[in-house]
Amino acid sequence: MILGYLKERIWFVLLLAACVGIFAGVLSLYDLPPEAAGYAGLLCLAALGLWTAVDFIRYRRKIRLLRSMLGQASLLMDQLPEAVGPKEEVYHALLRELDRDRRDAASAADAWRRETVDYYTLWVHQIKTPIAAMRLMLQGDDTERGRELAAELFRVERYVELVLSYLRLDGSGSDYVLREYALDGILRKAARKYAPLFIRGRVSLDLRETGMTVLTDEKWLQLVVEQVLSNAVKYAPGGRVTVRAEMDQLLIEDDGIGIAQEDLPRVFERGFTGYNGRVDKRSTGIGLYLCRQICAKLGHTITVDSEQGRGTRVAIGLARPFLEVE
Question: Is the pTM of this model over 0.70?
Answer without folding.
Answer: no
